[in-house]
Amino acid sequence: MIHRITKYKIREGQAAAVRQAVLDFIRATRESSLEGVKIDVFAEKDGLTFYHVACFRDEQAAENHTNSEHLADLWEIVYQRAESFSQSIEVDLIASTLPECQ
Length: 102
Fold this sequence. Notes:
Alpha-Beta Plaits
């Protein structure tokens, strides 16, 4: 499994547009039948700092996701509204309650 985390902070007043873009992105990801892809998106209590936690079955699943149109659509919206953006980092999973993410 491949695990990646992406963090970004958007400018004040942009939360509603980014939250809607995230919801559209998750829906499109589900509907695209990209197998082996699990993505969770979190927001800090400030409503401006977002985290994407992705779990990919293998390199092919990660590549398919990275090259997807709906991911490009999301990043276009986020980049226009971002105060700061960190590139995705690959992390090693130590433990999970979900065996499919191991």
